[in-house]
Amino acid sequence: MGLRIEDYALIGDGETAALVGRDGSMDWLCLPRFDSAACFAALLGGPEHGRWKIAPVAEILRVTRRYRPGTLVLETEFETADGVVALVDCMPLRNGAADVLRLVEGAAAGSPWRWTSASASTTAP
After folding, report:
1. Can you list the positions of beta strands (E) in the chain?
2. Each residue's pLDDT tens digit in the chain (125 positions)?
3. Chain-centre distance of CA 39, in angstroms?
4. What's the distance, Cα to Cα, between the start and end of the chain in Å?
């Protein structure tokens, strides 16, 4: 079962936006503009419809989220038995091309992360 809509947070650059789930999965993104085809669309189906997930491998005990003050820079903190680590997501204002930045902060040695990515199909059957 997918996430509830309230489990998503928005990041954007003024010309497009992405929805990032509490589980570290970017499940909606259209590039390079809002009206472009979706490259990640798991929000509407499942992982097979495209997503970019970055999350700890260990069992997640607690998740907290916040935006950095006055920004759309999203910080998601995952608490595991190994400690607390953060995933920071943002889309900087454009200087020509669209960019998505995802940064893992505070990952201790021995605290493995998993990165999975699959883009949505943009061709009709």
Report:
1. 8-12, 17-21, 25-30, 38-40, 51-56, 62-67, 74-80, 83-90, 101-105, 113-118
2. 579 999 999 999 999 999 999 999 999 999 999 999 999 999 988 888 889 999 999 899 999 999 999 999 999 999 998 888 899 999 999 888 899 999 998 866 567 788 888 776 543 33
3. 13
4. 25
Cβ partners under 8 Å of residue 35, min gap 6: none
What is the pTM for the complete model shown?
Answer: 0.88
* Cβ pair 72, 79 in contact under 8 A: no
Residues in CB range of 105: below 8 A, 6 or more apart:
85, 86, 87, 88
* Assigned token pair, 106: 């505070």
Question: Please, which residues bridge with residue 54 across strands?
Answer: 115
